[in-house]
Write a structure and sequence with these properties.
This protein is 49% helix and 18% strand. It is an alpha/beta fold and 238 residues long. The strands form two sheets. Strands 1-2-3-5-7-10 form a six-stranded mixed β-sheet, sandwiched between helices. Helix 1 (27-40) links the parallel strand 2 and strand 3. Helix 1 runs parallel beside helix 2 (69-88) and helix 2 packs parallel to helix 3 (104-111). The longest helix is centred in the C-terminal third of the chain and has 24 residues, at 214-237. The termini are far apart.
Amino acid sequence: MPDLDVSERDYTLIAKVQRRDDNEFTSEMISKLSRVVRDARAHPSLRFVRICAVGNVFCGGRERTGSSPEELRAEAERIVALNETLRASPLTIVAEVNGDAAGFGVGLVAASDIAVASTEARFWFPEILGGLAPTVVISWLAHTLSYKAAFDLVTTSEPIDAQRAASWGLITEAVPRNGLEARVNERIEGLAALSTPALREVKEFFAATRGMDPPSAATASINALTVSALRVGSERAR
């Protein structure tokens, strides 16, 4: 079986990680996930991307094989590109977190729109133990958690449990592992009952206003709401 198995079911693109016991990503897997999520936006029947894993670990991180400045830069660029692809995609990204997530794996969880995790899952950043300042992590973590929580996570490398991750906003919710798949199914089915264009517009507006201050985002919302309302009016007139 491929390390990253990609399939489609109904309106969902499923990306299943199944590599060794730790489900560590290679550079090729990172590029592949970026590509399939990017290409999926052109398929009108697809509405969701479901990232899941086989075994007891969601994702133990990523392989580091680069040594030259060019190789190291390319590795970082691939991670940033994937994070941006997940956040900017008009499809709703759903992470089904069956177990532990470390480093790059936590990034996958954070870049998802919905992350449902097993109560057994833990989340941590081990990079500093290898003498590495995880700047790619910090670039998004500082906007996800409070400064002190983010600083503590990257400097201590200590895991937090799923309940704390949920209270901090790193995941959406934590459920018992034997109910994880069913809960993710429920989440997707609930969203699938909503208007497809409206759900895409929600995702796109969140992405478009990430770097804006509140007054600028409010100004941008005027045009976005006008376009959305006109669309609804056109749909009702048909």
